[in-house]
Amino acid sequence: GEGSGSVPGDRTGPPAPERVLFPPTFSVSEIKNKQRRHFMFLRWKQQQRKEKLALKKKRRKEREALGDKAPPKAIPKTIENQRVYDETTVDPNDEEVAFDEATDEFAPYFNKQTVPKILITTSDRPRGRTVRFCEQLATVIPNSHVYYRRGLALKRIIPQCIARDFTDLIVINEDRKIPNGLVLSHLPDGPTAHFRMSSVRLRKEIKRKGKEPTEHIPEVILNNFTTRLGHSIGRMFAALFPHNPQFIGRQVATFHNQRDYIFFRFHRYIFKSEKKVGIQELGPRFTLKLRSLQKGTFDSKFGEYEWIHKRREMDTVRRKFHL
Questions:
Q1: Do residues 119 and 59 both lie within one domain?
Q2: Which of 4, 277, 302, 313 is found 20 to 30 A from 139 (Cα to Cα)?
């Protein structure tokens, strides 16, 4: 006869609970067998991915169902927007900072009273890549001159620079034929900044690059220099360029600070129509990380330091930035 209970093949009964692959207390690291541990880790990652996708789908459906009443999208947490507050962060309308900047050693450059004149030199006996990098840097910074150093100490170069009206000295250091450091010294009285340099790309190594740069004075863009130290470094870079950009050349030099790494890019922009603008990278490009800021001109022995990057003391939190 016809029974009322559910038949073994019948699917209308209560749904079987979904088998959870990994219980909440499970830890892959407890598995002793290396191959099994690796296999289980991959499975665990796969499950995490599935759960994340399912949650994303569910949220999207909820948003579509609510339409205009849907809550605004959550802003993802990043290291930048979770940054630890720095008490030296500068308010754009700060009168004290405005006064400092009107009277500091860079003020004459911003008032166009002084025209920058830059000497670019290298560590002793540079190799081919560093030489090419210096030559390309000289085409980016107007009124700059390249000098190859042969055994002459920096302390002896600085008085010669001052006597010849150079306003800044840039030294490119190298290690195993690769440019790895930059010293920027403002003359005659400092300050001097030491940077670690990485990710150097010369012109020929940049894909889809534009034609060689012209001799027009570029615009300078400084991004994200928010603290007092950041302001000082930003002004040092800005003072390398004359303050009357020739917009007809459409060239832009950008110093973009992100997580205390300063990314340098050199572009030309092209107006395709009234609304569309294209950009071509001209190169070179490089990344800098500030190591120290000295008060006077370069002096490794008796120099007075305003700021030194001490990794063990300063980098205790990943969300703390200094520039």
A1: no
A2: 277
